[in-house]
Amino acid sequence: MRLHEVRTYLSAEALAREDQLAWKLAEVAGDPMAVDDDVVEMIGNRIIDNAAVAAASLARRPVASARAQAMAHPLAPGATVLGLSPHRRVSPEWAAWANGVAVRELDFHDTFLAADYSHPGDNIPPVLAVAQHCGRTGADLVRGLAAAYEIHVALVRGICLHEHKIDHIAHLGPAAAAGLGALLGLPVATIYQAIQATLHVTTTTRQSRKGEISSWKAYAPAFAGKMAIEMTDRVMRGEGAPSPAYEGEDGFIAWLLGGPSAVYAVPLPEAGEAKRAILDTYTKEHSAEYQSQALIDLARRLGRRIPDLGRAREIVIHTSHHTHFVIGTGANDPQKMDPEASRETLDHSIMYIFAVALEDGAWHHERSYAPERARRPDTVALWHKIRTVEDPDWTRRYHARDPGEKAFGGRVVVTLADGSVVEDEIAVADAHPLGARPFRREHYVAKFRALAAGIVPEAEQDRFLGTVERLPRLSANDLSGLTFAVDPARAATQGGRGIFGAGAATRQPSLVAG
């Protein structure tokens, strides 16, 4: 592993493209190293994980809206849309849009946290869609996803976006473009341009995760994947991109991040080094922001020690800077304490999440967010007794490089009415690789079975899981099996009609000659 330093350069300094971060990322993506067996296994796990959470979200309005938009763009050969027949194909960027929203809607798939935040599984919809459209094999898909995860994790380790209020899809877009380049075996020079172009159009603000959070939180990563496809298509046709996108005098670092004096260090594998970053990422057992995962597990066990939660006078969660300021009281968002808040807001309120997990001893992706659940008087009373504080030691552990030291939990102190105290702490979620019950293939399968039950027919579940088992050996035709179909009533379009209605629109092919 090597550290690549990134800073702003004046235009007069004429930074060679081979020394630019986008070129270095493209070189990693274009390195044709074989993918290790344990990485292949984990890629399969994450394909299952994405399908699980997408199945559970199919009938939700944001997902139905995105699916309806995609259905207005049929194309052959095209790509599949989760929930629809594999024979019903749409243009790949629109398949990535629809499937990306389905995957993100419940905030329930994989995560990587370091200098910034990320959900690397968001790379799967665009890379898979293009693989299906362009007739690539399972081995090609594995190579593309290994590269996308590698680039995404590297950027998240090296460059903090959130302190400058830039949304984390600014790392996702370039990672997805890199993954597409690896999938298609594009020249480094082409991948380089695709990365820069995608960065340029996917840099947005964090208001999407602040205040009254809307369904755009699910659409944002789908937008990044869609843009990665469109920008890759564009540069494949011979077009260029703003350059140098990261280091330019009027570029990303100079004006949107730390400024002309800032220096970032991005860790990248050496040429010929295996791409294994996906193994440093982790999925979710619970449908909520990742920083709440360990605290939900702690609440489940702490609640058993407090028979009467009505006796609680105050609950203080001592945790990291990120948890306190993103989902805690440090965010200063009154919406996080509002029983009428949106689901998207509640899944970013550790105060609400901890209260419900304490009371119920469990967490459910639908019942825990139901409006009647959020409005329960005893829940509201308990919720408003909870606050977070930043603890420097938990912040240090959040940023630790040593996996055995890194932590995403906290210490909870419950003060009861009589002045007695009950406290406990947890470092990582039970499902974390170092947790009490690390997720293995059988856990991903169980999650898929549970979330797909009553939605995806059992025979269709079996067929999908069997296809994933053969992932590295899948032919181009077999890749259409990396989806699932449901009864049309289960995926009925809901919500408004939109500009295009439900009809089809003709368009030019993408990512093919023409």
What does this structure look like?
Helix content is about 40%, strand content about 10%. The protein has helices at about 20-30, 35-55, 60-70, 90-105, 125-135, 140-160, 170-185, 190-200, 215-235, 250-255, 295-300, 320-325, 345, 350-360, 370-375, 375-385, 390-400, 440-450, 460-470, and strands spanning about 1-5, 75-80, 110-115, 115-120, 265-270, 310-320, 385-390, 410-415, 420-425. Strands 7-6-8-9 form a four-stranded mixed sheet. Strands 1-5 form a two-stranded antiparallel ribbon. Helix 4 (about 90-105) runs antiparallel to helix 9 (about 215-235) and helix 8 (about 190-200) runs antiparallel to helix 9 (about 215-235). The two termini are about 40 Å apart.
SSE blueprint:
Layout: E1 2-7, H1 21-30, H2 37-57, H3 61-71, E2 74-79, H4 92-104, E3 112-113, E4 117-118, H5 124-133, H6 138-158, H7 169-184, H8 188-201, H9 216-236, H10 252-256, E5 263-268, H11 293-302, E6 312-319, H12 321-326, H13 343-346, H14 350-360, H15 371-374, H16 377-383, E7 386-390, H17 392-398, E8 410-416, E9 421-426, H18 441-452, H19 458-469
Parallel strand pairs: 6-7
Antiparallel strand pairs: 1-5, 3-4, 6-8, 8-9
Helix pairs in contact: 1-6, 1-7, 1-8, 2-4, 2-18, 3-4, 4-5, 4-9, 5-6, 5-7, 5-9, 6-7, 7-8, 7-9, 8-9, 11-14, 14-16
